[in-house]
Amino acid sequence: MDTSEPSPTSRGSYRVYTPESLGAAIRHYRTEAGLSQTQLAEMAGLNRTYLSNLESGKETEQVRRILRVLRQLGVRITLDKADW
Amino acid sequence: MDTSEPSPTSRGSYRVYTPESLGAAIRHYRTEAGLSQTQLAEMAGLNRTYLSNLESGKETEQVRRILRVLRQLGVRITLDKADW
DNA sequence: TTCGGATGTGTCCATATCCAGACATGGTAA
DNA sequence: TTACCATGTCTGGATATGGACACATCCGAA
C-alpha cells in the first residue's frame, strides 16, 4: 500500500492520475483546511461514507473511466488552490 | 446551445468548473487529436453513447458531486496537454 | 482509565447509470 | 441523387453506486 503523500509539484499543486491520487489530493486539501470528513460532507451535501471511500479511491469506477479518456488523449490533470 | 470553445488559459490549458466544461475540454482535445467519438470510446474501452453524453455534460451526477467537494475546498482543476 | 471525535468498513436497498442497440439528422464525397 | 460517417438521442435492461445506518478502531483529552 502506498502511504506516501500525493506528489506535489514545485508550486504546491497535485497531479491526478488515478482515483487514488485524486482521493489523496482531496484528503490533503481537506485536512489543510482543518475540516473533518463529516464537515466537508455536509458542506458538499454528501454522505460521509461516500467521502471516506472517495478519499481512499474506492468505488470510483466512474472516475476511472473519465481518467482513462483523458489519459488516452494525453491530457494532464492538475489540482491547486485558487487563492495562490 | 453554447457553441463556443472552452475558455483556454494563457498557456493553452483548460479550467474545469462543471461537468459541461469538463465535457467541452474533452471534446476539444479529442477533435484536436483527430479522433472520432467511436475511436476514442474504443481506445478507452467505453460506450460511444456514454462518451457523447460525457462531452455534453449530461448524466454526470457523479462528476458534479466530486466538483462540489473540490469547490468547497477552493481547489482549482486544470487540464492541459502533457507534451507541452 | 473513560469519553468523545474522527475514520474505516460492512450491509441493505432504492436508484442512478452504463451499455447495447436502434434510429434520425447533418455533412460530405462520389 | 446515393452512400457513408459522425453525432445526438431514445429505449430497455443489467449492474454499479450512493445513502442510511451500525459498528469497530484509533487517538487525544480530561
Question: What attributes characterize this protein structure?
Answer:
homodimer, 434 Repressor (Amino-terminal Domain), 4 helices, 51% helix, DNA-binding
Strand order in space, largest sheet of chain A: 1-2
For the largest beta-sheet of chain A, the strand count, sense and barrel status come to: 2 strands, antiparallel
| Largest interface, chains and sizes | A-B, 34 and 35 residues
How many helical elements of chain A? 4
Please give the oligomerization state of what you see.
Answer: homodimer
Which fold name is given in CATH as the topology of chain A? 434 Repressor (Amino-terminal Domain)
Shape of chain A: globular
Description:
The structure is a homodimer of 84-residue chains. Chain A is mainly alpha-helical. Chain A has one domain: lambda repressor-like DNA-binding domains (434 Repressor (Amino-terminal Domain)). Chain A is 51% helix and 12% strand. Chain A is built from four helices and two strands, in the order E-H-H-H-H-E. Chain A has helices spanning 19-32, 37-44, 48-56, 61-72; strands at residues 14-16, 75-81. In chain A, strands 1-2 form a two-stranded antiparallel ribbon. The radius of gyration of chain A is 13 Å and the shape is globular. The termini of chain A are far apart. Strand 2 (75-81) of chain A pairs antiparallel with strand 2 of chain B, so a sheet runs across the interface. Chain A binds a DNA duplex (30 and 30 nucleotides) through helix 3 and helix 4.
